[in-house]
């Protein structure tokens, strides 16, 4: 970026000057003259126009007004012609930028830039953008400031030299870059620490995820085993059901068999009872007939011998018939007992089935 320079200094009713224009050129300008000619007044005018704090502290500004006058004005004209298409002062499109300061005898003052009012803070700010610090004693050095400069520390003198030579901005950039670098390094360390913690956390969660996968796999295996167990139990139950059905079928066959045997035993017992009843009735008839024959034999004992023989034969025949009937009765009784036993056994087996 091209640099500007003070092209002219205009002093109006300032100190010993009623009206004076001091033109300057780029580079080194030397002003000579006898003592009291106003050489220092020119430097003081530049300092006042640019708002140097040292000047305001060292004297009252109203004392700088020419005797008998109420208002003084100091103007510094800065060159702003474009160089290679760029102007040194970017906030103005004019070839000259005028900074003026008015001083009144009542102690008030104000600034103007290109004839427009402006406060001191704005002047200092715009000059700082041009790399000009009016408070730097190497930029504007009054009489007696050499001793003040020599009493500064080497570090402060270096800062003033760098600022006057235009290197202050580079130092600020370097310090700012160093600060940013330190912040970046600190941030890098923080990021490394955070990355380390993140890696540990990642390792922890990877382990948790692996366990989760194992747990899901085990759950899946458990589910498959439970399904297999349920299937096996179902198959076993189905086989047991088949066996139970076979046993039920077998018991049903046995039930039908024993029920048939029970019916047959009941029929046989009924038939035997009826036969036994008939045998009993026949036996009673035979006993009655034997009794009749024996009474008849007693009545015929006095008759002829042939009649007795016939009667004895009749008695013997009756007794034989009684014995036969008794034998048949006892046999039927045994059959009835056997039929009863068979019936009871059939009923017992039916209950067991």
Descriptive key words:
63% helix; alpha+beta; 353 residues; 6-stranded antiparallel beta sheet; 7 helices; Four Helix Bundle (Hemerythrin (Met), subunit A)
Helical/strand content category: alpha+beta
Helix content: 55-70%
- Coarse shape: rod-shaped
| Radius of gyration (Å) | 76 Å
CATH class of the domain at 6-135: Alpha Beta
What value does the average pLDDT take?
A: 82
What does this protein structure show overall?
This protein is an alpha+beta fold and 353 residues long. Among the domains are: 6-135, Rossmann fold (3-Layer(aba) Sandwich); 248-352, Four Helix Bundle (Hemerythrin (Met), subunit A), CATH 1.20.120. 63% of the residues lie in helices and 12% in strands. It has a six-stranded antiparallel sheet.
Task: Provide the fold topology.
Blueprint: E1 6-14, E2 17-23, H1 39-49, H2 53-58, E3 71-79, E4 96-104, E5 109-113, E6 116-118, H3 120-129, H4 145-150, H5 154-164, H6 168-299, H7 305-352
Antiparallel strand pairs: 1-2, 1-3, 3-4, 4-5, 5-6
Helix pairs in contact: 6-7
Q: Concise description?
A:
It is built from seven helices and six strands.
